[in-house]
Amino acid sequence: MTSETVQMRTSPPTFAYLIVTKGAQAGSIFQLKADATTVGRSGTNDIRIDDPNVSSEHLRIRAEGGEFTLIDLGSTNGTRVNGRQLHQHVLRHNDRIQIGDTVLLFKKA
To answer: Which of 16, 24, 34, 94 is deepest in the core (most CB within 10 A)?
Structure first.
């Protein structure tokens, strides 16, 4: 009987974050959670945005299989990614997300 060693490559966990580039919190950096991150005006969100034009529960970013999918949660003013109003979108490095008067830059490492 022989023993075989199986080597499996595992890629490092995907790390992603949002940088506020416009709005009251410009310069702030928020790391996204490994499973899902909620964004909105309410303090119950993972990321709280101080902007009266952002809904209380504005959007969710779901992480799965190394991808991050933005889902608008029925916000009043909508969500724009790279200037286009969208309900759902798989985010790419350097995508610009606008909610209310706030602009967030998506970064993935």
So the answer is: 16
Q: Is domain 16-108 classified as CATH 1.10.620.20? A: no
SS (H, E, C) the chain: CCCCCCCCCCCCCCCEEEEEEECCCCCCEEECCCCEEEEECCCCCCEECCCCCCCCCCEEEEEECCEEEEEECCCCCCEEECCEECCEEECCCCCEEEECCEEEEEEEC
For tokens 């933005």, name the residue.
70
Domain residue ranges of the chain, discontinuous segments joined by +:
16-108
Q: pLDDT value at position 14?
A: 76
> Given a cut of 90, is residue 32 above it in pLDDT?
yes
Closest CA to 47 of 67, 74, 70, 66: 70
pLDDT of residue 1 exceeding 70, the answer is no
Mean pLDDT, to the nearest integer, of 30-57?
98
Q: Whole-angstrom distance between the N-terminal and C-terminal Cα of the chain? A: 44
